[in-house]
Amino acid sequence: MQNPFYKIVPEIITSISNPSVKELVKLRESARRRRERESFFVEGIEDLLTMMAAGKEVSEIYYNSRLAIHSGSMKDIERWKESETLQLQELGEDAFLKAAYRRNPDGVVGIVQSWDLGLSNLKCDELNQPILLLDEIEKPGNLGAILRTSEALGAGSVILSEPRVDFFNPNVVRSSRGLLANVNLAVGEKGEIFEYLEKFGLEFVATSAKADQCSHEFQYQANSVLVFGSESKGLGEFWKGKIKKWIRLKMLGSANSLNLNVSVGCVLNDYNRIN
Questions:
Q1: What global pTM score does this model have?
Q2: CA distance 264 to 146
Q3: Span 231-246, pLDDT tens digits
Q4: Thinking of the domain 119-274, which architecture would CATH place it in?
Q5: CA–CA separation, 182 vs 51, rounded Å?
Q6: What is the DSSP letter of 10?
């Protein structure tokens, strides 16, 4: 009779051709596969812990013992092994490196369930914080950095207007340090976003080098909508026609523009200082 306390330990996956390894690679590389599975790929113990702390569902964890011991991640692996809800699988080093993409991996990757990004989740009527609206953002690294900045500086919500990048792209996750899980975020088309926000009587504010008023002098409303255009084209004609207030960042040097994440950080900092 088998001991009821006996726990079956799965075999270590060593082949880079194993179906589980191939699936990790697909989730890492393919937005289509992420949509099909309603899941996404996360690499790194800290990002996974952030996801868990935010209440997101981590369905599978893969690890390599040598790399996890070297990085100090093994203590969390050992703790997770006692969980009845987490599915853990050890990978040989070659198999793990096939799935991972960071230059110096810490030995842990996971699969996390994606969540609804509908506008109805924003609850704008309950906010007393700025809403960040990003129009046609293109670069996953930039988006991740902006999410990290907005979380740190207290943006109430982030709205992606017809983005050119998948929100659950691994580079978004990495650049945000997993903090995308803490951000109240929605995705939509321009028209539906404006229609949704307009009913709350919110003030739309955007930056322009030609604006008369500087950001650090502007009197922001408590729940202003701060609108930013794409990295390559700037703000599109649709949103230009909806903006009532224009501001500019005070430049002391010869530069006439900044990286999108830096611009967002400057405006949010000015908002916080004034409010």
A1: 0.88
A2: 7
A3: 888 888 999 988 989 9
A4: 3-Layer(aba) Sandwich (3.40)
A5: 8
A6: P
